Amino acid sequence: MTKTRHAPSTLIIRDIHTIITMDPQSTTLRGGFIYVEGGEIKQVGNRPPAGLRADRTLNARYAVAMPGMINTHHHLCQTLTRACTAAADLELFDWLRTLYPLWGRLEEESMHVAALVGMAELLLSGCTTTTDHHYLFPRGQTKLIDAEIAAARKIGIRFHPTRGSMSRGKSKGGLPPDSEVQSEDEILEDCERLIRKYHDPAPGSMLRIALAPCSPFSVSEELMRQTAIMAERHQVRMHTHLAETRDEQDYCVQHFGKRPLDFLADVGWLGETTWVAHGIHFNRSEVKRLGRAHVGLAHCPSSNMRLGSGIAPALALRRAGSPVGLGVDGSASNDSSHMLAEARQALLLNRLAHGAAAIKTREALHMATVGGAECLGRDDIGSLAAGKRADIALFDLRDVGYSGAEDVAAAIVLCAPTRVETLIVDGHMVVENHELRTVALDPILTRHRRFAAKMVGSLPLL
Ligand SMILES: [Zn+2]
Predict the structure, then answer these.
(1) Does the predicted model carry a pTM greater than 0.90?
(2) Which of 69, 174, 179, 449 is the most exposed place for a label (fewest CB within 10 A)?
(3) Distance 408 CA to ligand 1 centre (A)
């Protein structure tokens, strides 16, 4: 275990059993190579040119290489309330009402550790970029996003934190308790602070901020409007939960006199810099409208199944023109941060809904990679091609679960999800030999269990 990330300035991964490039031609290579220089992919091909040398060479004749996956929706703090007994069998609104008081105990240190755990789980599942939608700021806790940014830097994941917010508490007709909402001035000031302090718009960026009022039932229309104006001014993206449940739809009709999508459109959010989480309860004309506007979707099949929320029209949205990525959404409504499992879930759920021919294994991987990059507005990640950042996942075909597989590229989503063997983020070796190289995980898990016990009241002793 090393504490510093080893970043060879040049790297060749050669003799790779299968490379799933996810390039526009959907190229698959057998026995090919990937050459990386300074964190950027310089060459991908069948055979390296004679004399090509690198500081480090990996032989990967046992591996399937694919682009590091991109998680487009998450709540990292919820790793502290996984499989919480009181919320185990509830639908969204009751699930939230049960968990809000526990989340009210969140502090900087527990946020930092929760983020490390969620990010570790993501990295070990082959995910190299994640977003987080953090909207909980209990009184006095103003630096929780800073705490998760510190975690991302330590563990070495590409990070798109979104500054979430809640301004409509129970006394104003919202769902969250008043003690967990902030004033709109406070929210907007902190959005501005985070953008100025952390947002890096440059190609290859390891950190970009987006703005993310939580949901129609926890913020005001005015906050949505002001957020859109600020996002435009700073050229950052916007994210929110939308059309997740029928309860939300009923809430919107009752409180705003309109459906969730009309709410979104009327506050100036219907555009290509917006991506929404869930998007389940859209009718046909709404799907077309979203597609025309290129609003992205973070499709979260596990969470939607876990909470019994419904099936998102993800395939119809893609056909209509919306980018569609995947979100593990959690970690208390999944209760996992395994990106490969999410890709498999997307495949299975959409086949259940629309038939086996409706979605190919490659399309599920497309959502987990290229579609996610599009949702986050990035053209430098999501595929293995010259000029892209070196975000690469290698899965080990020697794993028992892949034994006997003929089409090994399809096996990645058809067989049981495994732990990644090697993971490279921006040219850095973050996972080697199935283990994280950037942090020692065991002491983090010990601290995490302690914080979880404090938040929930008790946990079984290990
Ligand atoms: Zn969510």
Answers:
(1) yes
(2) 179
(3) 32
Report the 10 Å Cβ neighbour count for 225.
14
Cβ neighbours of 59 (radius 10 Å) = 11
The values of phi and psi at residue 435, to 5°, are -125, 150
User: What DSSP string runs through 182-228?
Assistant: --HHHHHHHHHHHHHHH---STT-SB--EEEE--TTTS-HHHHHHHH
- Give dist(CA 179, CA 174) in Å, integer: 12
d(CA 363, CA 187): 38
Cα three-residue angle 222-228-230, rounded to 5 degrees: 100
Q: Is the pLDDT of residue 4 over 60?
A: no
> Encoding tokens for residue 291?
């597609």
Taking the centre of ligand 1 as the mean of its atom positions, its distance from the CA of residue 163, in whole angstroms, is 13
CB 217 within 8 A of CB 175: yes
Distance CA 285, CA 185 (A): 36
For the record, the structure tokens of 330 come out as: 């959690």
Distance 298 CA to ligand 1 centre (A): 9
Peptide bond into 247 cis (omega under 30): no
311 and 349 Cβ atoms separated by less than 8 Å: yes
Per-residue confidence band for 2, with pLDDT thresholds at 50, 70 and 90: very low
CB 338 within 8 A of CB 121: yes
Give the tokens for residue 160: 């798109």
* Residue 445 · residue 118 · CB < 8 Å: no
pLDDT tens track for 49-91: 999 999 999 999 999 999 999 999 999 999 999 999 999 999 9
What is the per-residue pLDDT across 319-365, written as a single tens digit (0 to 9) for each? 999 999 999 998 889 999 999 999 999 999 999 999 999 999 999 99
